């Protein structure tokens, strides 16, 4: 229950706010109460580590039950009812949604560390391929073709045609082509090669071609084409290219290595691990770090607002209405459809939020003056922007000026607080948010 309450608080408010003076009467503020509603988020399942652990345990439990392994504490229960729990699928969806969110966060972290967007895209492609490979590996009938783009074109085309017509087939390459500098470059090459074959009607469907040096090592593949066939728990290895039916017949006859059945060729692509190791050795990581630091603010997209000309005050109702019933993975109803929730009623902190433009020296002086005279409880400072040309120097100067953290204004806060102009001061009056817009007459001459 605590997790979903926290989720709704984050969704509804975007930032913590404080209580100030008594709530205004309905007669005086009804005309200026804005209902901003819920702020859109990309992932509807924002779960913490404890919740993720619970969901993972549930999924493991269902897997054990499907396999007939019944834990002691469940023996004697109606297992059919448990296995058919209608909320099992919801638990899986939560896990999948969080995994997707984690991948997005990993990409953002990689960008922050200086990883190029091309390599991040390539990693995403590799993740998609890995998921497809895992799905195929679970099949009892799965064939793997080992290739090199140095093979004779006629044999390569024939092999890709066969693989494209077999849903259980996958094609693997040991590494990137000599002279290429990134995985992404290899991905583009392979996709272009396959699209050309399809355009020329050499193949009808596009087979999945993977970069995977590990399976070459696992099956001792040092020449291509080669084939490894899994069927009903049995495995057979072949050097050369032959048809699947022949391999299947020999496997069912008890053979595990058919030896060389046709001509084979050297692998033109170096081992991917060795290539990446050489690339990493050649990188100037300090230079990359300096480049990221130097260009960070130039690329940053600020959410700017107008400077306030006249003073104004208005109220925001942050209440949200639940659009569909929310349940825990065990089926317990946590929130009912149509239920209206005001997150401010659950807050017990006094917080004042000040939103201003840090590139305006007059607004910075006004904020300092306001802080020294009027704020109570916790203070949250948000700026619409900083000087891009000064970059990190400007950011450091801002932190020194206020001797506390200053955050960048984002779209969710603008929507949640209905911010129209800056500087603005946001406080809480019981169930409403009060937004005071500070006119130029108060800060313009500082």
Give the secondary structure arrangement, pairings included.
Blueprint: H1 2-13, H2 26-29, E1 33-35, H3 49-66, H4 79-83, H5 88-112, H6 117-137, E2 141-147, H7 153-164, E3 169-173, H8 183-199, E4 209-211, H9 213-218, E5 226-231, E6 234-239, H10 244-252, E7 257-260, H11 272-282, H12 285-299, E8 306-307, E9 312-317, E10 320-321, E11 326-327, E12 333-335, E13 340-341, E14 351-356, H13 361-373, E15 378-383, H14 392-402, E16 407-408, H15 411-417, E17 421-422, E18 424-429, E19 432-437, H16 440-443
Parallel strand pairs: 1-9, 2-3, 3-4, 6-7, 8-17, 14-15, 15-16
Antiparallel strand pairs: 2-5, 5-6, 9-19, 10-13, 11-12, 14-18, 18-19
Helix pairs in contact: 3-5
Strand order of the largest sheet: 1-9-19-18-14-15-16
CATH architecture of the largest domain: 3-Layer(aba) Sandwich
Shape: elongated
Distance between the termini: 49 Å
Q: Quaternary status of these chains?
A: single chain
Uncertain stretches? 1-31, 38-47
Q: Which topology of the largest domain does CATH recognise? A: Glutaredoxin
Helix/strand-derived category reads alpha/beta
Biggest pleated sheet: 7 strands, mixed
The total count of strands amounts to 19
Number of domain units: 3
